[in-house]
Amino acid sequence: MRVRRALRGIVLLAAAALGAAVPSASAASPATSTAPAAAGTVLVNCEHRAEVRPANFLLACADGTLRLDGMRWTQWGPRAAVGTGQQVVNDCDPYCAAGHYHSYPVRVTLDTPRPWPGHPGLTHYTQLNVVYLAGRPAIDVSHTDLWD
């Protein structure tokens, strides 16, 4: 029974990670885009693709244990982006595959844009900072260095 429950957890975790990493056509809205304009500042996702104002964003590419959900961006500019949503964190207790996900309302700031290597005319945010609006996870995931 425990093995079956653990396997179900692993399958659900993999499905959640895949669902968070693959944009859904039904989730697209005019304010959200995975195809940025020819020039501007973007957020680089786990697949090294540019995103502009993503509603959902995976931060832990390897195992899906950390993500942003339901993001609503109030600012998206050349120097910074600001939005609110939920940070979803796996507590990995007793271990990540059997852990539980917890959501925390957050305000997110993306900043420190740099030229995106190999993509002329595009810059990408390199820092992500989170302010917790109610409750916070046991581990500190309030600052993330973003990848190229």
Automatic annotation (TrEMBL):
<feature type="signal peptide">
    <location>
        <begin position="1"/>
        <end position="27"/>
    </location>
</feature>
<protein>
    <recommendedName>
        <fullName>Lipoprotein</fullName>
    </recommendedName>
</protein>
<keyword id="KW-0732">Signal</keyword>
